[in-house]
Amino acid sequence: MKQLFIFCILIVLSGTNVSAQTPCPAQELQSISVNADSPCEAYHGNSHYYNFVTLSTVRNFVKTGTLTWQYRQDTVTGIWQNLSPAIWQDLGTDVITRADFTIADNGQYRCIFTDTATGCRDFRKVNIYVNPRPQFFISTDSIRCEGMYLGVQLNNDPSQVLTYCWQPDLSGQTNNCEGDASAFLFDRVGCVMVSGIVTVKVTNQFGCENMIYTSGLCNQEYLDLYTQVNDEDSIFCAKSASLEVRRFSIATLQTGWSYQWKRNGNNLAWATNSAIKPATSGTYSCIVTNNSGCTFETNPAAIIVNPLPTVNLQPAGSTEICTNSTLILNAGSSAANTFSWYRNNTLMAASADTLPVSTAGTYRVTATNAFGCTATSQPSKITVYRAKTTANGPTIFCAGDSVVLQQYTPNTVSWQWQLNNVNIPGATFPTYAAKQSGLYRAKSKNIAGCVSYSNQIDVNVNCREGSESMANLKVYPVPSSDFIEITIPEPYQHAGTLLLTDLSGKILSSTPISGLASQRINISHLDSGIYFVKLQSEHSTSTGKIVRL
Predict the structure, then answer these.
(1) How much is the pTM?
(2) Is 254 in contact with 220 (CB distance < 8 Å)?
(3) Which among 207, 435, 501, 519 is least surrounded, fewest beta carbons within 10 Å?
(4) Which CATH fold topology does 8-128 show?
(5) Dihedral sign, Cα of residue 262, residue 267, residue 268, residue 274
(6) CATH topology of domain 474-548
């Protein structure tokens, strides 16, 4: 390390001048020698600056004694204090050192020698002063269209006269100054998250310097942009690749920016997003405006866009065909193309531009032209007209009851109900109340003229009939899903039996009645359907109907 002797005010007092301090001079100390690395203070910031200061006694070495080192900041009236062993090394010896000497250590130093034999003392003192280094930080003063303006904000003595050296990289060329003013325009692209991307060295009038860098500079509004073709090359199929505005830096495109794409120098009214899918060949660029009103046009990108094949699957939408009939689907595309047909998203073994279909499903076709560009049609939904009949209630019941059959197949325009495959006169409506046993179905026709026979429904009227009376037997509520209440007519209240049966007459339960005017029965365990309750006595029977929901 290069050694420099700093300017010191050295005051040496002889033994005859210390009578006020001690009754006798020791006449041992001659002077104090000062050695320092730099005339500038030590400083540890982004850059480290050391300053080793060494104080050495110059002695006669004729006497033996002890040494005491002291310091005071005020060289005239200051109070002497012993140096701290935590700061100064080797106190009590002839050579002491301070590793990081700063302006806070400036002042007057003395060494006191005390003769061991006589107690006589003498001392020598020296003034030590080092110059300050500029202490500052880098601020972001403003962000404009041209970039970020950085500044130096001084933290210590404002009277210093400063010079500046801005270095926007760490190339190792310490004199590679790109700016010598207190402010610096950082016009690099976007965000550069690299430690030390901008360094400034500031030097004061004493020749003392300090160097600080700023890291992670990020101008989110800087228009460091280019046109990106998101494909392997600049030749692609229409709308299969995109043009995008990208940033050179890692910053993202900012919310609030506006975009206007141009083709061959002309604005495209539809292209106002950061990415577009062009369908026409040409040279594209984009004018981007940021939130500060700054604008930038990206580099032109010349692309060749090959056309997509035309596909117009017919018939389109939904089509209903007759049972056992065939419909021809047409791709609506040039026969020179190749085709792939799909039913319910499953590839079919068909490759022509037409496809005969007789099965319901959702069909679509993909055409590929000579450029290798593909286009897929809108789906065509094919349904097969099939009539379906349902029963709105139990199909097993007693004589006098009925069940309503209905056939509400969409697109149906006419109906003819049949019993055992024979037309029922006048039964030409969507519903029919069946009262006889037999097989019922509906012959129907849709708006396209397709004829369909529905599924058959078996109706069975098979309750056992007898001389039963429904008089005076009240059952409620009907229908019910849990309990029913039965009012017992007076003739049955003294001696009778309450029976629960199904439609076939099978007895499900039997309960004796004696002295009761009503009876509650739990039917929650029964299946949904029609049931009967019967009150039997020696001379008569009364019946009521139950509907279990």
Answers:
(1) 0.49
(2) yes
(3) 207
(4) Immunoglobulin-like (2.60.40)
(5) positive
(6) Immunoglobulin-like (2.60.40)
